[in-house]
Structure formats: structure tokens, C-alpha cells
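Q: Sequence in, structure out?
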Amino acid sequence: MAPKRDKQSGRAYSADRRHWVWSLSWRLAWIGVPALAAACLVAGRAIAPPTPQVLIALALLPLPALLSFVRGFSTWSGRGAGAAAWAIAAAAAAVLTGGLSGPFAALCLAPLAAAVAPPVADGRRIAQGAVAALVAVIAVVFLQVAGFAAAAPDALVSAWLGFVAVAGVTLTLAAGLIRNQRALGADQGEQLRRAAYIQALMEGQPNLVIALSMDGAARSVFGALPPGVTEAGLRQGLEAVAQPSDRALVTAAFRAAAQGGDGVAVFAPDGAPDRTVALALRRKDDDLIVGVMRDATAERAREAVLEEAKNDAEGRAAGRARFLANMSHELRTPLNAIMGFSDIIHQRLFGPISDRYGEYAQLIHESGGHLLDLINDLLDMSKIEAERFELSREEFDGRDAITAALRLMRVQADAAEVKLRGVLPPRALEIDADRRALKQIVLNLVSNALKFTPKGGSVTVSAHGVGAMFELIVADTGAGIAPEDLARLGKPYEQAGDARGRALGTGLGLSLVRGLSELHGGEMILESRLGAGTSVTVRMPVMAHPAPLPQMPPADEPTPLGGNVVAFTPPRATNGE
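A: Exactly. Output:
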């Protein structure tokens, strides 16, 4: 199946093909006519024998046409060489046949005829042909005066050669002029069609395109006028189409465009105060500014609705965060009482109770502790969102807070049959931070890692200081996190994994870690791969005394366990920890 073309590309293809056929035709004709003339002279040798000079002259005439098939002579860069070739061939043929008084004198116009012959002749090419023709005439005159011109052939041969020369040059000039005139007319017609097509597009578009002079008056108007804007008002000036209260906006936009920038204004038109019009202006040249004007009433209404909904949602969220932050005492007080009394009952401090009641009291105490942990996370997250969380910073050894958190998590690790290990430096990690916040970060990360690490796996907590940066890393050998879930984790209430895994938490653990680390000016980095575990890194610039950069030991020196770290397994928590 032939490839489809639109009308414009089809017309261009047809025009190019006609041009190629014409160029080939006149070149072949210029080659064939001298050959035919020479054949006629040779055939009529008995009547009027041609001289060798005449045959040489006839052989020179096709050479420029043959050279025009060479790539260098057919391109723009070779046109000057092509005109020179025509001039040399014409001058040589004229000198060999008697100079300006010979039959080939008319061939001096051959360079000009060759310049006009192409389908679309440009001024540069015609000028080169005219100069080459003049140079050929001067060269023939000079050579004839100097006595280098051959004698003219007899009358019959001269008549025949003169007819061939005059006819060839005249027909080439005439055909080229006619062809170029038609091509010029076709180009003009195509330009008119394109102009009409562009005019129809401009008139049919939904927006209004205006061309403005530097004084703000509209020169041309295309497209649909927005409601409340009239063409008469635009003729008076751009400011006249706006409400008096909005004219300063239009003036500022016009000045910005006049100074070479982009002018933008949104205003109410003078003819329709309840509508909204958007205007965009840009300077085109020294005395022209182009603008686009459109009706933005519906768009402005949608923006107002969206803005109102956004403000309402933000107000509700802020109010909810403030409410939860203010409910800290009211929620924690009854829970502490429930946990305290259930612990008293479980320990039978005021007398014996049955074992079942004791078991129930222990379940109440454990459930209350779990609920208190959830409430504490929720309240802390609410305080962070409401920007009411205040850090209580102090200088302390970061290892103490990490060790205390690991002791608290040892029981949960033993119950899950997961190996919990700490890797800490032998020297103190003096940091300036909130002790409770650091402990909470470790508790949340370790608790989260234990939930998603299968039996027999391990969770490793390491910490070190590099310069002013304190770095805490919690790595596990769990199932890992899918790539599509990594981007969501760390945001409040976002969870990953299947339904069973999501039921194990509230989605606040990682968001609290991120929020607390950011309050210290740090960041949380989450890395994971399915089937290979997860690593969470918390980096905070809280080192009280910048630690020296770690130095690698010599290659031949053995390194003990961890090099500059101490590995340990946290003991079970004692009472009060």
C-alpha cells in the first residue's frame, strides 16, 4: 500500500518532481542540439564541409550541461563555478568560429540563459549568469582584437550554426522565463492558500489573540471575544476593557511585556463585572506586543472551590491535631489508674484472689500498656504536626539511651525468637539531643523490625559518630519492603505489606522516627529489598564534640570484632526500665 500524504505534502512532492523533470529536459536538450547540428554538418559534407574548428566548437557546447550533473556544480556552492564553465565554453566556441562576427556570437548569452533555465531562478544565480555573459563577451573581443580568433566558416555553415546558436539561447531564455513565472505564480498561490488557512485557524480559535501597538491600542483582533470585552473597547486601549479597579493590573502587565518580560493579569471586564478574564502578553518586536485573552470565569470558580476545600481540610486537620495534643493528660491519667490498680490486683497486695482473676488482672495491665503506647505515639505525632512538640535537649552518652531501649525490647525479641544485638563504639557518644526522643526512636525502629522479622532472624542496632553527625542504624533480616511501598512509608498512618502485617501496627512508628529526627535537624533513610531485609538509618547533627573520622587499620593488622565497636546482646530489662 502506498504511503498516505496530506494535500500539502502531495502538492510539494508533485512540484518537486516537475522541477526535476524540467531541469533534466533542458540539460539533455542543450547536449543533444549541438550533437544534432554536428551530425547534420557531417552528413552534408559534400554541400558545405565543416572545418575542424567548427566541430571542436560544437563539442565544447555540451560540456557545461554535462558538468551540471556533477554534484559540486548543482549545489549552491558550485553555481559560481557552473556560470564560469558556461562562459568559458561559450567564449571558446565563439573564438573558434570567428569571434563576435561569427555565427556563435549569440552563445555569449549562454551563461545567462543557463541561470534562468532552472524551475525557480533566484537573483543571485541570475546575477552570476549576467556577469559570466559579460566576461565572455569581453574575452571574445580581446581575443579577436589580439588576432587569436579563427576565420568564420562559409556562408551556408555560418547560417546553420547561427540559427542553432540563436535558437538555442532564445528558446532557453524564453522557456526559463515562462517556467519561472509559472512557478512564481504557483508559489504565490500556495502562499495565499496558506495565509487563508492560517486566517481561518486564527478566526476559529476559542481564545482571543490581539496584536497591540506600544501605546496599548489593538492593531488586529482574531478569535472569540470574551464576555464583556468588545472590539471597540480594544481599539481605545487595553485598559478600557477592564473594570476601573482592575485597570492597574492590566497596566502593570502591559508594562512588564513592553520591557521584554511576560505580562499576566486577571481582571473583571468593564462590560461584565461578574466575569473573569485572563490576559497574557509578550513583546514580539520593537513596536508590537502580542496577547492572548480568554474567559477564566469557570476556572476561577473552580479554583475558589478548591481553595475553600483546602482551607477547610487544613483547618480540620489542625483542629484535630490541637485537640489530640491538648488531650494528653485526660487520656493518660485514667489509663495510668487502670494499669496501676490492675497491677495491684495481679500482685495480690490486699489479699488473695483466684488464679483466674489474677490472670484477668494481668491481661488488663498488658492491654492498658499497649493502649498507652498507641496513645503516646498518637499524641506525639499530633504534637509534631501541630508544631507543639518541644525538645528537652541535654548532653548525654547516646549509648545509654540505646542500651536502655534494647533492654526493654529484649523480652519481645525472645518471644518472637529473633536475635537482638547491639553494636556500639567502646568510647562515649556524647550528643546534645532529647534523651527521651532518642530512646523513642530506637524503640520504634526495633519494635517495627521485630514485627516483620521471622523466627530465627536477627535485628542489629548500631550507632557511631562521624564529625558532627550522629548515625543510628537498625537493620533486620526480615521479608523486606516492596519498592512501591518505600515512597509511602514514613508518612503518618501509612503501612506496607499484606493485611496481616498491617494489623500489627498503626502506621505511626516510622512517621514518629522521621518527625523526631527532623526536629533535631536530621533525616531518616529507608532502604530495603524483598527477601533481603530492611535497614533504617537516622542521621542527626547532634554530636556534642565532633568525633574524629574513622581511620582504616593497616592491611596486615588484624581487626577485632567490629574494629572500633563493641558487640553485645542486651540483657532482660529490670524493674523500672
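Residues 1-6, 499-504, 551-566, 573-577 have pLDDT under 50 and may be disordered.
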